[in-house]
Write a structure and sequence with these properties.
The protein has 240 residues and is an all-alpha fold. It has a domain of 166 residues. α2 runs parallel beside α4, α6 runs antiparallel to α9 and α9 runs antiparallel to α10. The radius of gyration is 20 Å and the shape is globular. The N terminus is likely disordered. Bound molecules: protoporphyrin IX containing FE.
Length: 240
């Protein structure tokens, strides 16, 4: 994002977009961070692609177990949720470890979330439903956990489509920010989708881990929002 977009959009983007690397006022000066090294982004890009490459290789080499279709659908679902958590973790990590440059990676992680979500949907549509549109629509209507996953993917689409600098200029930063707050609903829907799917098997151990991680990440944001609200109220009562 360039400097012409509003500073409000820089301050704390919900998730999908690249943040500014400009140091916020009050943040201590530190030597040029190794996170700003030009090699970091390409390395991160390759790392983000590794799970996909590994699954692709597994499908080709037939090492995905007795049910490769299920393994692919599940693994891409898991990676979608992991990338969603990573994307949401950027802002708290920036603050906790005083690492503003981490914002450079937010857009890439957000787009990888979408990439894995689309791969997940395509694995399901292809391997589970043979791309039969009527069967997919019937399945979405019949199984609530599929409906919830679909809703999450549908909501994720405009976020991915507007994660570019030009979209922020075109929409205006407050409208852009309002749209990108949908990431919180998406995280909730993703978790509900996972919970619902696992509840059929009475297996909640992994779901509980994601619930704690997302609870901490969303709780951090809620706290910041409360603090900002309190500060505004205090400032306006001081003026009066
Ligand atoms: C942001 C959107 C989504 C997220 C975060 C997500 C996440 C997940 C996760 C974490 C799992 C469980 C993997 C495991 O058991 O290890 C899963 C399974 C699954 N998801 Fe999704 N999903 C999403 C969207 C969708 C969509 C759009 C569909 C289909 C229309 C879908 C269909 C499925 C199916 C069929 C399974 C496997 C069920 C089974 O093996 O019994 N998901 N998903």
């Amino acid at each position: 994002m360039d400097a012409t977009a509003s500073t409000a959009a820089h301050a704390d983007r919900p998730a999908m977009n690249l943040g500014s690397t400009t140091r916020a006022p009050g943040v201590a000066s530190r030597p040029r961070s190794r996170w700003l090294h030009p090699a970091v982004k390409p390395v991160l890009f390759v790392l983000c692609l590794m799970p996909f490459a590994w699954l692709f290789y597994g499908a080709w080499a037939n090492t995905l177990g007795a049910n490769p279709a299920e393994a692919l659908i599940r693994a891409t679902g898991d990676w979608t949720l992991r990338f969603l958590c990573l994307t949401l973790a950027i802002s708290p990590l920036r603050q906790w470890f005083n690492l503003p440059p981490l914002a450079r990676f937010r857009r890439m992680l957000g787009l990888f979330t979408y990439f894995y979500a689309v791969s997940h949907f395509l694995s399901y549509a292809w391997l589970d439903q043979s791309f039969a549109l009527d069967a997919i629509v019937r399945d979405i209507a019949k199984r609530p956990f599929i409906l919830v996953g679909t809703l999450a993917l549908v909501l994720l689409t405009p976020l991915a489509a507007t994660s570019f600098n030009r979209a922020i200029k075109w929409m205006g930063s407050s409208r852009w920010q309002a749209l990108h707050r949908a990431v919180y609903a998406i995280a909730g829907l993703g978790l509900l989708h996972f919970f619902w799917m696992r509840s059929a098997k009475n297996d909640f151990s992994e779901v509980a881990i994601y619930a704690v991680v997302l609870g901490v990440l969303l709780g951090w944001r809620f706290n910041r929002w409360l603090a900002a609200k309190r500060a505004t109220a205090a400032a306006s009562s001081a003026v009066r």
